[in-house]
Amino acid sequence: MTFEHNTLEQVTTWVNAGHVSDFPENGGSTIFHEGDQIAVFNFKVLNKWFATQNLCPHKKQMILSRGIIGTEGETPKVACPYHKKTFSLETGENLNGCEDSIETFPIKIEDDTVFVGLYEKK
Amino acid sequence: MTKIVIVGNGMVSYKLCEKLIEKNTSASITVIGEEPRPAYDRVHLSAYFEDENAEKLSMASRDWYKGNGINLITSEKVSLINREQQTITTHTNSTYSYDYLVLATGSSAFVPPIKGVDKKGVFVYRTIEDLELMMAYGKKAKSAAVLGGGLLGLEAAKAAIDMKLKTSVVEFAPRLMPRQIDEVGGDLLKSKMEGIGIDVLLGKATSEIVGDDVMTGLSFSDDTALNVDMLIISAGIRPRDELGKAADIKTAERGGFVVNSLMQTNDEKIFAIGECASYENMIYGLVAPGYDMAEVVAEQIANENKEYTFEGCDMSTKLKLIGVDVASFGDPFCENIPHFPITINDQQNGIYKRINISEDGSKLLGGILIGDAEDYNMLHQMFINEMALPPHPQDLIIKSTGDGGAAIGVDALPDTAQVCSCENVTKGDICCSIKDDGVTDINGIKKATKAGTGCGGCMPMVNNILEDTLQKMGTVIRKEICEHFTYTRQEMFDLIKVNEIKTYDELLAKYGQGGGCETCKPLVGSLLASIWNDLILKEATIQDTNDRFLANIQKGGSYSVVPRIAGGEITPDKLIVIGEVAKEFDLYTKITGGQRIDLFGAKLNDLPLIWERFIDAGFESGHAYGKSLRTVKSCVGSTWCRFGLHDSVGFAIEIENRYKGLRSPHKLKGGVSGCIRECAEARGKDFGVIATEKGWNLYVGGNGGANPKHAVLLAGDIDKETVIKYIDRYLMFYIKTAEPLQRTAPWLEKLEGGIEYLKQVVVEDSLGIGEQLESDMEVLKAHYSCEWKEAVKNPEIRKRFAHFSNTDQDDPTLKFKRERDQKFPVAW
Ligand SMILES: Cc1cc2nc3c(=O)[nH]c(=O)nc-3n(C[C@H](O)[C@H](O)[C@H](O)COP(=O)(O)OP(=O)(O)OC[C@H]3O[C@@H](n4cnc5c(N)ncnc54)[C@H](O)[C@@H]3O)c2cc1C
Ligand code: SF4
Ligand code: SF4
Ligand code: FES
């Protein structure tokens, strides 16, 4: 499985995802960019933002942004709404240890605008 | 000092070293392995594709060997055994003498003699080096074929897919995994493979690998062909017994050193273990039997314990292919054995289960699980231990929904049951570590017994044994909610109520820690709603997706819409509206068991539009998405039915409207029948009311579902007002005291004193809380409002239903097909 935790150095474009108020607090929503769906999470409790692929690797459902977010120990995570498989929002690792990992993307806020860092696919 | 030489440094060789160290032998140990690195976990070889991290697969470091005084020599191949002088010679001409020689040379991939196997682009799947070569080549390739549709072949195919190659599996037999699963299972597995993008070619004999220097495709004996850039051969294994010939060590016809039950070859100074050993003409291509063999040899050498022998091993397996559950155990076919198969073949959900029951119905002979292998551990145990079957063996494979207990628990396992086969840990070992050594958690068990440290497949069962044993010891297991709240549900209920807490964030800040999770968030959401009956929309992101979007999520990511149709009574005008809306938004419609009409296949962004129409027509939310009152089913009753005693429809509507929107630990259903003939099936509900000559009988604690349960009589021949009063008290008492996601039937079962106690509380008001319960219910009733009414008129809330936050477009991945004149989701 390709497991990519994309780092800042790899970013080739910062995509404007919208105003911070477009994103629910302590939850996720989806953005659409050139055919790709990216889940964006506004983790208010931790004062952090995260972005991951929207596709749940378990049954290949475009759904992760609608999952409940939380923490496991120190690790922020999202639980897929279908079968509650959980993934680290930081590294994308599947925390139940039985699914593939998900892709994660850097995210930054500038002047109340949310930017997701994408990279050129080969 | 005894000199032990071990040839080969694979998993089994490592295990032997570990066991010898454990047993404190004073022997000098030399291990000679041909591979460049110390033993690694071949079972999880495919993980190497993910991170190319060989370190993670390592069984032990070179330092470990050194620290334990073992002389480890890698990249060196043993080429000769001299039995007379008791020495071995390596390919670099070094010679070592031994008192005991252990052959742990494993297997190599079997490469069938097909024309062209030596071309570039042909690979086997056995070592880290194989994978490295494959990955390098795969970068330039577009497509790959896997020769062999067995356990390993499918794993290789998954690896190829992950390398982003167009992948096909070529199998000679007419189905996949022909040795483990039957035809029906094979068909389903094929469609699952195709579902993750793997082409499956069955009944194909490969006659040639074509291409010049570099392969370009395969041709088959039926004159068909496949163009493909690379081939991974996974056609079985060949024991590495080549050292046997010159030294005159007996080998079996199908390969492998012939061993007895003490793992001795025909030379009693020479043992063979693992995949290179042939015991009773059988090669075990699995790691667990190899570990067992290592134990036998360690006992021989360290204690000369002749009693501990190898007795064969069963070949049950579970595929660890990501995303596809496949397992088989015992005799999956029972071809020539009289037996009764029990099967579930659920095509829609892609689940096939088969268990074979002995002719006398006393025990399990084997089985197959596809699509859902969760029960594998338990079934496997029942098989190995020849445990007695429950009265209805079908319960073993029918999913219990948590509404009642599983068909059989770990309690029934004998102490000798081998729970962890990698490390050979029995249930007794685990229980001992808990009872005698005071272990109380999973990590402690892992440390004390090693259970679960191998493949990890036994962890769920280890966990159950832990809980079961602690419970029996009288250790109270507080059902704390999760790592964020160290309280039980009941304690949380009181905290919220007494401290007047209104939001999740407030509760987390005051009484919790960390960032919350998918367990505590919806639970608190439900408690807040049960206590204050505030709109659940307020803190939408703590709700499960159903509550968050006020609709039930269905396969493929669409939602269903369920308007309330109280008592199942609906006017023609409203029926027309339902039809019109369904047509306009292209929704699948179905009449449900709860006497209402569900509309499926709605896009998230259409939900507010659909509901706007329904609200205008006077409908309200049916709360099908929440853990709350669903429906109160009714028969036509005295209005139309010639047997009817009272107006069951009218009463059902009254009750449904009274409790609509009520949030509870689990969903609630009710029913009202007009006479004892019970056409509304009221006794299959959480509360059921049945008309009598003198009034109504009230029954409680019933449900349908996987473990049907008839509701029991709470009070008889009472009038309508009393029925309502008692239901108020009963429901409120349940809401306050039940566990999360516990329906009324199991709640009543666990309630100390059972129905007699409930009668005292509700009917006789023995706790003196009757009035309180009633007024709590009044408060909730007063706070009811339809969530959808609120949602459609509030633009802020409507915004949440946008599919994407940066564009208005629909989700292009939503896919439907048409069947029977309606729309259907495509299967996953
Ligand atoms: C991809 C894959 C997935 C698998 N999945 C599972 C699974 O899910 N469950 C399961 O139970 N099993 C699984 N197996 C099988 C399991 O890995 C083997 O049963 C196990 O590794 C056998 O251990 P062994 O020590 O007998 O042999 P090996 O691990 O093959 O070790 C033998 C070693 O000896 C070396 N050797 C051979 N001849 C010589 C010589 N003359 N001189 C020096 N060294 C020599 C070899 O190079 C090799 O390193 C899988 C195997 C593979 C390849
Ligand atoms: S339960 Fe009695 S009243 Fe109701 S429909 Fe059946 S027979 Fe008629
Ligand atoms: S019985 Fe219920 S849960 Fe099962 S498929 Fe039917 S609707 Fe779904
Ligand atoms: S689809 Fe995500 S957990 Fe099953």
Task: Explain the overall architecture.
The complex is a heterodimer of chains A (122) and B (828). Chain A starts with 12 loop residues before the first strand and ends with a strand. Chain A has no helices and 12 strands. Chain A has a 4-stranded antiparallel beta sheet, with no helix packed on it. Chain A has a 3-stranded antiparallel beta sheet with strand order 1-12-11, with no helix packed on it. In chain A, a hairpin with a 4-residue loop joins strand 5 and strand 6 (61-62). The mean pLDDT of chain A is 85. Chain A is mostly beta strands and 122 residues long. The radius of gyration of chain A is 13 Å and the shape is globular. Chain A has strands at 13-19, 27-33, 36-43, 48-53, 55-56, 61-62, 68-72, 75-79, 86-88, 104-105, 107-110, 113-118. Chain B is α/β, with parallel strands linked by helices and 828 residues long. In chain B, strands 3-2-1-7-19 form a 5-stranded parallel beta sheet. In chain B, strands 9-16-10-11-12 form a 5-stranded parallel beta sheet. In chain B, helix 20 links the parallel strand 33 and strand 34. The two termini of chain B are 63 Å apart. Classes of the chains: A mainly beta (122), B alpha/beta (828). At the A-B interface, strand 1, strand 2, strand 3, strand 6 and strand 7 of A face helix 2, helix 16 and helix 17 of B. The structure holds flavin-adenine dinucleotide, iron/sulfur cluster (2 copies) and FE2/S2 (inorganic) cluster. One iron/sulfur cluster binds at residues 635-637, 641, 643-644, 648, 673-675, 677-679 of chain B. FE2/S2 (inorganic) cluster binds at residues 56, 58-59, 61, 80, 82-83, 85 of chain A.
